[in-house]
Amino acid sequence: MFERDAMPSHRFLPLCIAAAALLVACDSGASETVDDRSGVTYTCCSAEDVDRPYRPGQTLLVHWTAESPAAPVTDSPQVELTARLTGPYATVDELKTAIGERGDDAGKVTFEAQPLRPTGTPGEQPVSSIPISSDARPGFYNLTTAENQAGRTASGGSIIRVIADASPQS
């Protein structure tokens, strides 16, 4: 009885053959290659862009960093870079709460840079310019940047502080 259980049953032979064929097919080396290169990608921002206060009437410059893929790109990238500043918020916590609630910008203003469409040439360093209105109120502003490429969007954010204009003393 023990010897009979140790021997393979002929009922499982077709199942074993099918499993072996599946393993061979999976490991045959033939696979479909999907070209998922999205070309040059862009990230934002340098610390000098965001780690300082701004005043009404100044221009916030957003320096984009281009990152080239390992393989050469033959097509021109279809990339659009956008940047906008929304606020003011009284505190950083208020700004973060508004971001979490998505779209609660009631009573807020938005300053936007013109969209950029970089060419993807090596060494290119795109810069978005966001003019801050001369009547901008002091507070914390949400800087939102986005790279739109091949139907995909990658976005990020930073907090920018706008301080009151230095008033002339008499």
From TrEMBL:
What is the protein's given name? Lipoprotein
> Looking at the record's lineage, which domain of life comes first?
Bacteria
As given in the record, the signal peptide range reads 1-30
Q: What organism does the record attribute this protein to?
A: Actinoplanes sichuanensis
The protein's UniProt keywords, in alphabetical order, are: Signal
